[in-house]
Amino acid sequence: MSNPTMVMYEEEFQEVNDIIERLLKEANAKIIFLVDKNGQLISGVGETERFDTTSLASLTAGNIAATGGLAKLIGEKEFSILFHEGEKDNLHISIVGGRVILVVLFDAGSSLGLVRLRVKKASEELSYIFEKLMRKSAEREKCGSSNFPFAEITDEDIDNLFR
What pTM, to 2 d.p., does this model score? Predict the structure, then answer.
């Protein structure tokens, strides 16, 4: 089976946001981001206005890619959890379901143990949602593009629209 392109639907997007908003509170975190492995921000909650979310998302994906290279060099498949400790803030980065990256920014008001515990539960819930999304995407591709609402639009149609 080919690797289907994942499409985020409104229902699943809301479920994802509910989970990461709950994680924000339960882990006493400042910010939580969900990023795809290509560096695209999927969602963010908390004090997001303080940061350049585009840069944070792409640098996080680069960090995962770099540590993936390190893992392969020493014979590991990947490092699924990364932790960066700073003077004021800490980053807990984890790969969820092999598909997305969960980034939790927290300070001394929380602890690494609490964050790890809460991330583990949230990751299980998020994995289930992303599995469901992949099944939906695979079904959509299997049924053919005729059921996809924009399948009949060509590049020429788009060019004509903007002339």
Answer: 0.81
